[in-house]
Amino acid sequence: ELDSTTYVIAENAYLSSNCDKATRDFTNYLKQYSKGLFTLNAHYYRADCEAKSNFNEEAIKDFEYVISQSQNKFTEKSLLALGILYQKINRTDDAISIYKKLEIGASRESDKKMAEKSLMKLYFKNEEFDSASAYAAIILREEIFRISSKKTKSFGDLNSKNSLKVRGKTSIIETLPTKYWSECIASSACD
C-alpha cells in the first residue's frame, strides 16, 4: 500500500508536467522500492523527465533498464528515445544497434520509418555508403509504394538489371547512383 501511495505521488507530478518534482519522487520511490510494483513505470517516466531536462546519461540508464526487461508497453518508446539520445551524444554505434532493434520490433509504422531514416543518416556519418544507400532505397521504395497506391499512374519501363518492380512496372529507385544517395543524405533532402 505504501508502495502505491509513494508511486502515485510521483506519477501525479509527472502527469502535471512537473518533471523536477517527478524526477525526485521517482528516485525516492526506486530507492525505497527497487523491486516494487511500479518499478518499470518509474524508470520510464523518470527517464522521460531526465531526457527533457537534458540529463542524457541518467535518461540513458533508465531507458536501458526499461528495454532490458521483457517486452512491455514502454519498450518501443524507450528504443526510440535511446536512439535519439545516443545520436545526440555521438554514440553512433550504440544508436545504430538500437535503431536496428526498433526497425525490427516496431509496431508503429512511424517508429519504423524513423529508425530507417536514422540508420541511413548514421551509416552515412560512419562513411558506410553501401548501407546508407540501402536504407535510402528502402525509404524511397516505401514512398513510391505509398504514392503509387494513391495514384494509378505507373512508372515507365527502364532497361536496367538493377531496377525494382513496382506493381509489375519498372521504377528508377535502384538505378540511381550511390553518389545521388550520398548527396541526398548529406543535404537532408531525403527527410
What attributes does this structure have?
191 residues, mainly alpha, 9 helices, 69% helix
Topology:
Elements lengths: L1 H14 L3 H14 L6 H14 L3 H13 L6 H14 L3 H14 L3 H17 L3 H22 L13 E3 L2 E3 L6 H9 L5
Antiparallel strand pairs: 1-2
Helix pairs in contact: 1-2, 1-3, 2-3, 3-4, 4-5, 5-6, 5-7, 6-7, 7-8, 8-9
Short note summarizing the structure:
This protein has helices spanning 2-15, 19-32, 39-52, 56-68, 75-88, 92-105, 109-125, 129-150, 178-186, and strands spanning 164-166, 169-171. Mean pLDDT is 84; it is low at 152-181. The protein contains 9 helices and 2 strands; from the N terminus they run ααααααααββα.
Write the H/E string, N to C: HHHHHHHHEEH
Return residue spans where pLDDT drops below 50 for at least 5 consecutive residues: 152-181
- In quaternary terms, these chains amount to single chain
Which descriptor suits the 3D outline?
Answer: elongated
